[in-house]
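REQUEST ID: PR-0412
SUBMITTED BY: lab tech R.K.
PRIORITY: routine
TASK: structure prediction, single protein chain
INPUT:
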Amino acid sequence: MKMEYQVGFLLSRAAWAMNNFVNRILRENGLPDISVAYFAVLQTLWENDGLSISELGEKVQLEKSTMTSLIDRMEGAGLLRREDHPTDRRAFKICLTARGKDLEEKLDQVSSRAYRLLTQGIPEKDLQKSIEICKQLVQNAELGRGGE
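STATUS: complete
OUTPUT:
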């Protein structure tokens, strides 16, 4: 396989495998209705509760249509709720429920454990370099220049 294909394929495969692993760890820790897909939304709301769907989508870098279905699922899981927006009658604020707030510590513990297991045997300097490389790949892709 050509190098150009390997990098993207392996990054995609690693993300898929890691997400499946974390979802399994969540189930094993009594959180079968929580998905790794919820993490970015929860993290953002833990830091700044009450954002509009547009603001939230911008922060977690998801399209509005994707955000809407994700919010629907998370609302169904009792993690958040829609409230009327104070200044825009067409919009809603997305607010954490008590359950959504209470899960912060447990999800931090579960995700830390999963990270330790996933990165076992990888030197810290290699993990840091991987983060730098991934950030550069994202930046190049977002600039639409592919590093040229």
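NOTES: The longest helix spans residues 3-28.
REVIEWED BY: pending
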